[in-house]
Specification:
Residues 93-112 have a biased composition (Basic and acidic residues). Residues 84-112 are annotated as: Disordered. This protein is an alpha+beta fold. 26% of the residues lie in helices and 23% in strands. The chain contains two helices and four strands, in the order ααββββ. It has a two-stranded antiparallel sheet. The longest helix is centred in the first third of the chain and has 22 residues, at 15-36.
Length: 112
């Protein structure tokens, strides 16, 4: 066999080629899903490893592969440091609004 694709197709009686195809489809799906939440951009990779061993005129190939899909983007959380070295969700430089309930009272409807 001279073609690389033929060798891959014959490894593990075709199972390696089938596994690579499944992994590629899964990686493309992961990239697509990640790109939807990342402004249309995503990056991943697939590594194929073939180990060749020659012993007494017999060539043995051992195959493996790995994929690396993009990690999902995590949201950011904002905190402020307190004088006691704790974290607070409240900005100490911003005044608090004194919110109160406005009583619901009937009003006269005016025509203009």
């Amino acid at each position: 066999m001279r073609q690389f694709s033929q060798i891959i197709a014959e490894c593990e009686d075709g199972q390696f080629n089938a596994d690579l195809s499944d992994a590629l489809r899964n990686l493309i799906g992961d990239l697509h899903n990640s790109a939807v939440s990342a402004n249309g951009r995503a990056k991943g990779n697939m590594t194929v490893k073939i180990e060749f061993k020659l012993d007494g005129g017999v060539m043995t190939l051992t195959t493996d592969y790995s994929t690396k899909a993009p990690k999902a983007a995590r949201a950011h959380s904002v905190f402020w440091a307190t004088p006691e070295n704790n974290l607070s969700r409240r900005n100490p430089k911003q005044r608090e609004l004194e919110l109160r309930t406005v009583p619901d009272s009937p009003r006269e409807v005016r025509s203009i």
